[in-house]
């Protein structure tokens, strides 16, 4: 005599408050203290310049989820999204506080400031985690 065994799997979704909430990925301003050192061809410190500057940063949260799966080896399908820059822009910053190796402030023209190029987020969005193909 044969008997038929039927397995029924019920998957219920329970959502946390963070899964229901909106994405908050945004571009925000942040103040940083930037320090740049300049060396001669022999590797000796020539001057140190610094300045407090405002730069953009990406901050916030994105919707991610984990759900049961019979297809994946782990038994769970994970979809993770991270707040990252959608593109970067290049800016030139002028540092105006420059000092010699002894800590004496430089006042001579062309030595009392330094231009530094940096790249900062121009806009931030949610991207699939680990996706660097953009």
From TrEMBL:
Coiled coil: none annotated. GO terms for molecular function: G protein-coupled receptor binding; neuropeptide hormone activity. The keyword Signal applies. InterPro entries: Bursicon_suB. One of its GO terms (biological process) is G protein-coupled receptor signaling pathway. One of its GO terms (cellular component) is bursicon neuropeptide hormone complex. Residues 1-16 form the signal peptide. The keyword Cytoplasm does not apply. Keywords: Signal. This is Partner of bursicon.
